[in-house]
Amino acid sequence: MSKLKDKKIQNLFLGLLFDALGMLSFVIPGIGEFSDIIWAPISAWLMTRMYKGKIGQIAGLVTFVEELIPGTDFVPSFTLMWLYTYVFKGKKKEKIVKID
Considering its fold, how many domains does the chain have in total? Predict the structure, then answer.
């Protein structure tokens, strides 16, 4: 497997895991919102490590805010970022046709 494909699969699995961890606060009544205060900066940091550059920083900020806002834990930030990076952004690159 190529390095890009390995990273793509690794980021998908990590993203699914991190989204599941972020949703755990729904399972534990009472301490859910408190756990979001701890999880928000961790998830933002993880996002910036998984996706480098300006887009990773923006995604980290969005993830941080999403985790702090009550009731938005159901949003799968990491999975959405993976889709943006490897599916939607990848299709844009394929549409560029070089004309000689």
Answer: 1
